[in-house]
């Protein structure tokens, strides 16, 4: 039982590691609805005269320039959305075949149909068009064969049934007269090859000519090809010769369409796509592609790209340059798509490919692939390096071990287990040295261990000396010293190093992020970086081909360097056809370059890279001005719209690397200077002013020259108000308006000055009146009498004091009258001195008191001068003086909002009684004093907007109980400062 289990496991292992011969892979891109295609089902593809690729779908047609799909449907002019075929004639028209039979075509950005083109008015009688034939650009005629086997003719002016007038007007008639009726299709599917009207035509089912015969090849490529089930015939009036029998090539299903691509033959069926590479060179190898895809049409465009349309899976595209490359990944034989190393043994012609999971793939000369699992440890166990060793053997380094592999017997042998192995090198005499984690190992000799750095690479100078690359720089070591030493004190050599190569006395140092340094005699003699064209400064591996070229594997492609000139020759990237820019390894063998990437293995003739240097076709897509979009035209004339943006949208017909297209535009009209480079295909000009302009645009694709400029003449017409005469009138009106405004301003200023003068005059008058009325002449007269009385009574000292206080009061009054505002403290001091003199004059017949709110002491308050004194004087003179007993006067000061509230309260005879006792002269005097105060308050309001108030209250009549006297309240505008 155990032996049976081992036999079963052995058989299973053999089945797993030995696979059938595989052919090269092709990089095929798919375009689908998500990319903008009208429908995933595509019936046909056609390229028009300008280079656009058109696709017919059940929901309209799509026009493709390599980057954008422009879709058209019935609303754009199609006679029906279900378009089953396309044909492009020599006049640049693209014809749309629909099942309703109504003809339509696209020309000059417009779809022509019977509604907008009377030449297409035609009664199809429910028969639809099937095939199209061209009469050439000179005649302009197009012939069609409809589903009723009738030939129709389009002259450019009308659409009619043919006038050939014989019953033989059918598909055979058109095909055998292909010198007149040029077929607009590559092949025709027929039910039979028998032409009922050509009894002399021979049908040859076995090809009598070798396919390599140039004359036979010319016949196949210049005449119509007919498809009969799964065979292909070259059809002429004389004979129909079979040149491809699908059964002989393993194609059992019926052929639906074909495409001839130079020496290659593409065959589409309802099950798959077949490529017979070098068919016309006699090769017998067929490649089956797009398994389980219904191929509806095949097209080779002018650049050599292949387009494959499918039923339900969109469009597939194979760039022409991919035919220069061969690809290997997990889709055609390898274990996975991630490749780390490659090597080819010349003696056995065995290709070795190292991958992740410890897998080694071998491909022999017949294409048979075998897989071996070398490193079975857990974690990282990729096959990092493959080096030539002794005869019929190679060294294979993985993440965790070093193996020896025999290329004859294809058996491996473990040499040494090494954790975190990074690099292996072999000296000229065959000494093996290993760089691993923090140690350097000389196999079967010694090891330098426990280094405080990560060892990344090693390069032998001779059998006893070598260089070591680490994460903190370069070191030198010999078998005698067994110690790592710095080679000089060069800061450039202290970078993190990824790989080393010793070539002809020079050390090439690949760094982690500083490019490549070249060292000679311990000195750096060259630095190569992205600044001078290196693909990337992150170097992953260095490979020397032995014939003068160093290949640098980076994360952005491969750089090829001439080691003798120490110059970068070229870069190879995914733009050139690599499967990925993440390069892990390179190998060169007799002109064939192998490049290992993270997405598969790519190999090609290293000196035969395709370079598409032909400039792209540039076209004007549309023009937008304001809110309108206009069809493309080389002349654009439109009336100026204020603040409207002018935009010209361009495009290029580039199917390979459309995202690499650059544009340059020039608005100066000078084709030599003034070009502006952009990656955008929309060129905006905001608020383009009236004038005549010439816009030139050109483009270039990857590695091509600039195209010839496409020019657009732009004429923005001015509005009436932008004409010179309108501008003159507007200028004149503007000057008149300015003069009017200036005159108005001057008048306002004069009026303002006049009002100000009047205000000043009135203020001066009021201040004079106030000054006149502030100090009653009776007070002066009585004060002088009091002085005389004191002198007569021999009270000279008291008289002198009174006279001194009186003089001080008069001086203070005169000083305050010159000011617009005085402080509240100054006003209280003035009133206090005034009241003290009045007390002396009236023999101390009254007392007084000032009551001031506490918060007034927090500010410096300024009030108009001489505005409280007249009120106080009236209170004493007319309220307290006539009283028989002693009186009391209270002056209260408070803050209300931004106004000073002042009340003068006396317990005199009262306002009404006082008025009754006054003489007419006194009444006049009082009325004048009070009116002056009110007018001063009004004028102050006109200047600063603050509203004052004066109110006189007889307390006996106003509800103060039995109290007599007068209360005068005044609100005074103030200036308040902290």
TrEMBL record:
The keyword Transmembrane applies. GO terms for molecular function: phosphorelay sensor kinase activity. Residues 767-845 form the Signal transduction histidine kinase internal region domain. Gene3D superfamilies: Histidine kinase-like ATPase, C-terminal domain (3.30.565.10), Immunoglobulins (2.60.40.10), YVTN repeat-like/Quinoprotein amine dehydrogenase (2.130.10.10). It holds the Pfam family Y_Y_Y. Signal peptide: none annotated. The chain crosses the membrane at residues 724-746. SUPFAM superfamilies: ATPase domain of HSP90 chaperone/DNA topoisomerase II/histidine kinase, Quinoprotein alcohol dehydrogenase-like. Coiled coil: none annotated. Residues 655-717 form the Two component regulator three Y domain. The keyword Ribonucleoprotein does not apply. This is Two component regulator propeller. It comes from Chitinophaga jiangningensis. The lineage of its organism: Bacteria, Pseudomonadati, Bacteroidota, Chitinophagia, Chitinophagales.
């Amino acid at each position: 039982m155990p032996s049976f289990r081992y036999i079963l496991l052995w058989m299973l292992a053999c089945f797993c590691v030995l696979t059938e011969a595989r052919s090269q892979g092709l990089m095929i891109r798919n375009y689908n609805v998500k990319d903008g295609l009208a429908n995933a089902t595509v019936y046909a593809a056609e390229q028009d005269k300008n280079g656009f690729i058109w696709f017919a779908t059940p929901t309209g047609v799509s026009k493709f320039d390599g980057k954008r799909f422009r879709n058209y449907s019935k609303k754009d002019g199609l006679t029906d959305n279900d378009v089953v075929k396309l044909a492009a004639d020599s006049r640049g028209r693209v014809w749309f075949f629909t099942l309703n039979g109504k003809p339509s075509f696209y020309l000059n950005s417009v779809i022509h149909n019977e509604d907008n083109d009377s030449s297409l008015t035609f009664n199809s009688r429910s028969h639809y068009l099937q095939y199209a034939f061209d009469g050439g650009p000179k005649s302009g005629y197009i012939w069609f064969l409809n589903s009723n086997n009738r030939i129709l003719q389009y002259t450019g002016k009308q659409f009619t049934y043919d006038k050939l007038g014989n019953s033989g007007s059918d598909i055979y008639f058109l095909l055998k007269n292909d010198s007149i009726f040029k077929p607009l299709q590559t092949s025709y599917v027929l039910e039979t090859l028998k032409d009922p009207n050509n009894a002399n035509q021979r049908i040859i089912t076995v090809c009598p000519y070798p396919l390599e015969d140039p004359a036979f090849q010319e016949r196949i490529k210049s005449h119509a090809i007919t498809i009969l089930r799964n065979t292909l015939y070259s059809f002429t009036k004389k004979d129909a010769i079979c040149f491809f029998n699908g059964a002989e090539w393993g194609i059992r299903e019926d052929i639906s369409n074909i495409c001839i691509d130079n020496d290659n033959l593409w065959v589409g069926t309802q099950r798959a796509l077949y490529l017979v590479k070098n068919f016309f060179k006699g090769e017998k190898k067929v490649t089956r592609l797009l398994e389980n895809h219904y191929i509806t049409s095949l097209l080779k465009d002018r650049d050599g790209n292949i387009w494959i349309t499918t039923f339900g899976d969109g469009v597939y595209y194979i760039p022409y340059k991919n035919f220069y490359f061969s690809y290997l990944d997990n889709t055609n034989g390898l274990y996975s798509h991630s490749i780390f190393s490659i090597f080819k043994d010349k003696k056995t012609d065995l290709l070795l490919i190292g991958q992740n999971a410890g897998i080694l793939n071998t491909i022999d000369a017949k294409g048979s692939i075998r897989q071996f699992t070398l490193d079975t440890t857990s974690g990282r166990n990729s096959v990092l390096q493959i080096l030539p060793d002794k005869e019929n053997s190679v060294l294979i380094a993985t993440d965790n071990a070093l193996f020896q592999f025999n290329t004859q017997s294809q058996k491996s042998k473990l040499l040494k287990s090494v954790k975190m192995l990074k690099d292996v090198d072999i000296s000229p005499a065959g000494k093996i040295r290993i760089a691993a984690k923090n140690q350097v190992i000389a196999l079967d000799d010694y090891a330098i261990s426990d280094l405080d750095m990560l060892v990344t690479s090693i390069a032998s100078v001779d059998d006893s000396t070598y260089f070591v690359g680490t994460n903190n720089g370069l070191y030198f070591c010999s078998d005698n010293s067994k110690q790592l030493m710095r080679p000089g004190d060069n800061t450039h050599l202290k970078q993190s190093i990824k790989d080393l190569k010793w070539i002809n006395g020079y050390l090439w140092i690949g760094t982690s992020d500083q490019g490549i340094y070249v060292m000679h005699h311990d000195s750096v003699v060259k630095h190569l970086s992205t600044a001078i064209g290196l693909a990337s400064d992150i170097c992953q591996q260095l490979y020397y081909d032995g014939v003068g070229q160093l290949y640098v594997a980076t994360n952005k492609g491969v750089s090829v360097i001439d080691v003798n000139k120490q110059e970068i020759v070229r870069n190879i990237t995914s733009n050139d056809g690599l499967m990925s820019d993440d390069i892990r390894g390179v190998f060169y063998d007799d002109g064939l370059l192998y490049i290992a990437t993270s997405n598969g293995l790519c190999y090609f003739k290293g000196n035969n890279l395709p370079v598409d240097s032909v400039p792209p076709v540039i076209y004007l897509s549309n023009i937008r001005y304001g809110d309108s979009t206009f069809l493309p035209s080389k002349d654009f004339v439109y009336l100026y719209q204020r603040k409207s943006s002018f935009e010209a949208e361009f495009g290029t017909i580039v199917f390979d690397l459309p995202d690499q297209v650059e544009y340059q535009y020039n608005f100066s009209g000078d084709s030599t200077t003034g070009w502006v480079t952009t990656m955008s295909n929309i060129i905006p000009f905001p608020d383009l002013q009236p004038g005549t302009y010439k816009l030139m645009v050109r483009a270039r694709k990857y590695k091509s020259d600039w195209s010839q400029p496409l020019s657009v003449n732009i004429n923005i017409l001015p509005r009436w108000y932008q004409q010179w005469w309108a501008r003159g009138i507007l200028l004149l009106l503007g000057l008149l308006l300015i003069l009017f405004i200036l005159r108005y301003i001057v008048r306002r200023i004069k009026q303002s000055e006049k009002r100000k003068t009047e205000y000043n005059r009135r203020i001066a008058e009021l201040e004079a009146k106030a000054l006149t009325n502030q100090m009653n002449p009776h007070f002066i007269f009585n004060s002088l009498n009091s002085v005389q009385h004191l002198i007569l009574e021999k009270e000279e000292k008291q008289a002198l004091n009174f006279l001194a206080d009186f003089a001080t009061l008069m001086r203070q009054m005169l000083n305050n009258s010159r000011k617009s505002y005085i402080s509240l403290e100054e006003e209280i001091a003035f009133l206090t001195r005034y009241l003290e003199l009045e007390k002396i004059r009236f023999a101390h017949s009254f007392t007084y008191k000032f009551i001031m709110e506490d918060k007034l002491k927090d500010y410096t308050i300024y009030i108009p001068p001489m505005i409280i004194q007249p009120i106080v004087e009236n209170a004493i003179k007319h309220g307290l003086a006539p009283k028989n007993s002693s009186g009391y006067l209270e002056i209260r000061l408070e803050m209300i909002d931004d106004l000073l509230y002042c009340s003068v309260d006396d317990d005199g005879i009262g306002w009404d009684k006082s008025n009754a006792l006054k003489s007419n002269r006194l009444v006049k005097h009082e009325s004048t004093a009070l009116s002056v105060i009110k007018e001063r308050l009004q004028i102050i309001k006109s200047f600063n907007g603050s509203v004052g108030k004066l109110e006189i209250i007889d307390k006996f009549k106003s509800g103060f109980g039995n109290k007599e006297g007068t209360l005068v309240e005044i609100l005074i505008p103030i200036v308040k400062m902290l």
